[in-house]
Amino acid sequence: MSDLVRELRSRIEELEEEIRQIRDDMVSTNGAFLNFLTRNEVKIILGIYGRKIADYAYLDRLTESGDKYSRYTDINHEALRNRVSIWKLRQKMRERGIEIKTWRGIGYYLDDDNKAKLKQLMEKKDD
């Protein structure tokens, strides 16, 4: 019984550390960050920021409109729309020194340096 308790306590400590790390990575965005991005681009960049690798399916789910009355409800249209949004987002981020990288066939990611730059941009105060 004591081995099980030790294992559970160890797992609890691991989970608490994971939660602490996630909280450290969370930032509150401000108006300046949102002014130069569309709503769809904000969803995408925060999705990429929040994961080690944001795969294509995750980003598609993240940005799906859910509007069943849209004339563009085809899944291929949604995927294409995201690819175009990411292309535009990359241009905007590149102007600010942030590079969104591709893991071909998997998805997109930010390395540690680019995550730090994005975090600074999101925390930047309005001037």
Percent range for β-strand residues: 5-15%
From the alpha carbons, calculate the radius of gyration and give it in angstroms.
Answer: 18 Å
Treating each run of at least 4 consecutive H or I residues as one helix, how many helices? 6
Give the oligomeric state.
Answer: single chain
Output the helix-strand order: HHHEHHEEH
* Spans where pLDDT lies below 50 across 5 or more residues: none
Mean pLDDT: 79
Q: Structural class from helices and strands? A: mainly alpha
What is the CATH architecture annotation? Orthogonal Bundle
SSE inventory with pairings:
Layout: H1 2-25, H2 31-35, H3 39-49, E1 54-55, H4 56-63, H5 75-95, E2 101-103, E3 107-109, H6 112-123
Antiparallel strand pairs: 1-3, 2-3
Helix pairs in contact: 3-4, 3-5
Task: Explain what you see.
13% of the residues are buried. The chain has helices at 2-25, 31-35, 39-49, 56-63, 75-95, 112-123; strands spanning 54-55, 101-103, 107-109. It starts with a helix and ends with a helix. It is built from 6 helices and 3 strands, in the order αααβααββα. The protein is 64% helix and 6% strand. It has a 3-stranded antiparallel sheet. The mean pLDDT is 79. It is elongated, with a radius of gyration of 18 Å. The protein has one domain: Arc Repressor Mutant, subunit A (Orthogonal Bundle). The chain is mainly alpha-helical and 127 residues long.
